[in-house]
Amino acid sequence: MKTLVIKNLKKKFGTTWAVRNLNLELEPGEIFVLLGPNGAGKTTTLKLIAGLLHPDEGDVVINGIDTRKNPLEAKSRIGYIPDEPFIYSKLTGREFINFVAGIYNVKHDDYEKKMAELFKRFGVGAWIDGFSEGYSHGMKQKVVMCQLLLHDPQLILIDEPLVGLDPKSSKTVRETFIELKNQGKTLFICTHTLSFAKDIASKIGIINVGEMKFIGNLDELSKISGKRDIEEIYLKLSEESVNETIP
After folding, report:
1. Coiled-coil ranges per the record (predicted)?
2. Is 2 helix (H, G, I), strand (E, B) or coil?
3. Distance between CA 112 and CA 92 in Å, rounded?
4. What is the mean pLDDT of the chain?
5. CA-only gyration radius of the chain, Å
């Protein structure tokens, strides 16, 4: 069964199409990296999949579950991190993670084991018991990475996973994503970090002005664009997309 199926997805804000005619299928064990300039539709696409926005048209199916017909069941299969990691400011990081564990009905024994593993993996220290209002962006990112994996989601959605992380933590995140892929999880990642896409993506998408301009692997992308360097490819396709919109 495919982890994610998107059919003819459309979302409009006023007179502007944020996402238009989006079609995508992802299998278990794939890492899909979506690239695009600011305002291209990356974050809107993630929010539509996560059920935080409702599409004007089209369907999103997660593990065979239609997100319109069974939204709660579909959301239970998802782990999601937005571009700005959110933690309630008057909670400690540990309290926030406890809160998320309760929402997903994570068993106590599973929770204790998982937290010990994740805290060690992401270098979470004594600061986890301080109020999150004093956390740096990187500290918040570590907390939300921990809560992301609590309930063993099949589909993982992440917007800009490396922002605010130091080099060691960035390396840990990359290694974690590869492990999740090898476990059969499906990852959908939006990023501006082209080297990140090159290093870990099974499949790459390039979106601009709300439309998907390419979906495939790096070799396929190179053949189409006539270039090998991912940065040159990205800039070429982005420029072509912009030129198409100029009357």
Report:
1. none
2. coil
3. 17
4. 88
5. 18
